[in-house]
Amino acid sequence: xxxxxxxxxxxxxxxxxxxxxxxxxxxxxxxxxxxxxxxxxxxxxxxxxxxxxxxxxxxxxxxxxxxxxxxxxxxxxxxxxxxxxxxxxxxxxxxxxxxxxxxxxxxxxxxxxxxxxxxxxxxxxxxxxxxxxxxxxxxxxxxxxxxxxxxxxxxxxxxxxxxxxxxxxxxxxxxxxxxxxxxxxxxxxxxxxxxxxxxxxxxxxxxxxxxxxxxxxxxxxxxxxxxxxxxxxxxxxxxxxxxxxxxxxxxxxxxxxxxxxxxxxxxxxxxxxxxxxxxxxxxxxxxxxxxxxxxxxxxxxxxxxxxxxxxxxxxxxxxxxxxxxxxxxxxxxxxxx
Length: 337
Description:
With 337 residues, the protein is an alpha+beta fold. It has helices at 26-40, 48-62, 156-159, 171-176, 195-204, 228-231, 233-237, 241-260, 263-283, 287-290, 298-301, 304-336; strands at 4-6, 12-13, 16-17, 23-25, 70-75, 85-89, 95-99, 127-137, 140-147, 162-165, 191-193, 209-214.
C-alpha cells in the first residue's frame, strides 16, 4: 500500500481550491516539493548589502579599477535553498554564473547564523579569501582558500577550508530535507557546490580570484570595514575642481592690475623735470646787463641745470625699457581677456 499525505480541505494547488478532504500519494507530494525547490532556485542571488560590503573590501585589496580577475560572493543572509553564490568579473562587473552553496554543519540548518574561525568548529567563516591552488582530494577537484581578514578567516588554510563538490548539494537533498525548508546538506565549514556547478566554476573563474562571504552580523561588528566609506568619497572629490578655478583667477587678476599701473610711472617723471630747468634759466638775467658780475660767474649757475635735468636723462631710457618689458604682458593679458 502506498503511503499518503493528507492535506487540509482549503489547500490551494495550482490556483484551484479543494473543497473536501482528499489523499495524495507520496510520489505526487515529492513532485510538488520539487516544484517548490525549482522556484526557490530562481530567486535573486545576492543582496545589495552583500554587494556593498564586497565592493568595499575588494577595492581595498585590489584597487577600485582592477584590470582582470574574478570575485565569488556568498550571501549568507539567504537560505541554502536559494542560489546565494555568484561569480563576478572584476574587469566589467558582470555576473558570470550563479549557484547553490552549502554552509558549515554548526552554522545552522536552513540559514547560516553562527560563524567561527576556530579550528575544529565546523562553522563557516566570513570575510575575504584569496583563491589558492587546485588539488585533487576526496571530493574530487578542489580549490584551496587563504583567509585575508584576521579574526574572521585567517585560519582557513589550517582548517582546510576549500571549495569542493558534494553530493549533498542537489535537489534530491533539498527534497529529503523538505521538512526543514528544503535546505541543502552541510559541510565542515567549506564552500560546497554541486558537481555540475564545480565544473562550471573551474571554467568561469579567472585569476587572480577572490571569495567574499557575507552575513548580516558583519554590520554590527565594528572591527570589520563598513561599506559607508565609499559613499563619502564623491563629496571629498568635489573640492579638487575649485582650486583649478581659483588658480586660474589668481593668474588673470595680477596681470590686469599690473597692466593698469603701467601708464603711471611713464607719465609722472616726464612732465615735471622738463619744464623746470627751462623756466629757471629763462628767469635768470644775462651776465652782460649786471655789470658787477664777472664774466666767469655764470658757470657757477651751471651745476644747478645738470642736477635738474638729471631725472630727464635717467627717465628716458628707463621708461622705454619698461615699455619694452610690459608690451608682451599686455598682449598676453588682452589674449586672456
